[in-house]
Amino acid sequence: MNFLKSIIYGSEGSYDFLGVPVKFEKMETHYSFSNKQKKSSLSKSIACLADLCVTSKSFAILTGGYTHCLIHEYGHAFTCKLLKRHVCGIRISSNSALGRTSMLCNTLPSYQKSIIDTAGPFLGISYSCCKLISALALKKYISRPVAFSIAAGALIWILGEIFYALFSVIKKDGGDFGQIAKRGKVHVIAATGALLVPTTIGLTVGFKLLMK
Ligand SMILES: [Zn+2]
After folding, report:
1. pLDDT per position as a tens digit, 120-172
2. What is the dihedral of CA 149, 59, 203, 179, to 10 degrees?
3. Domain map (residue ranges) of the chain
4. CA of 142 to the centre of ligand 1 (A)
5. Which of 51, 80, 182, 197, CA to CA, is 20 to 30 A from 191?
6. Closest CA to 77 of 69, 68, 85, 65
7. For residues 206 and 47, what is the distance between their CA atoms, to the nearest angstrom?
8. Distance, CA 141 to ligand 1 centroid (Å)?
9. What is the whole-number distance in angstroms between the Cα of residue 118 and the centre of ligand 1?
């Protein structure tokens, strides 16, 4: 019950999620899409809107952000465990749907580090796809507002992952794709290719649901 409250409302608590320690707690989150170099007012506005989304608790609750964040972070943790490295745990901010996975993978070859970095957004987008496909399959049995809210939440997080990846590559920051970008173009191309299939499926099914 407490775990449910955490993944829906971000309530504080510590759990074991499929063999990985997970902690929902108040965290200082420094991630920002805005930067001083942006010249056009459109790009500034988009970045400010994105900042508002990632730092808003109500946005996280309304769009299922806490669950999405947990699945994203678990993607990193699970892949790290597959590569036989120690995962210290996942921390998720209770005041915004942002998280961090601590793991000991510094000695891994760079391509394996890129696989770990890609696994988070890949699992996050795939999870949104599963929600959309289930909603489409059950569309005869669920009301239009329910289908719409599932589709909107899942689509927002697919676009959020893409947006986050794009900004991170441009800024070469500490985000998943920023780290991948520091390893070279081949890593970025391979990681982008991996996200292409679930993104295409998700966007197609999502817009089909919204149009029904
Ligand atoms: Zn990540």
Report:
1. 999 999 999 999 998 888 888 888 888 888 888 899 899 989 988 998 999 88
2. -160
3. 2-211
4. 32
5. 51
6. 85
7. 24
8. 35
9. 8
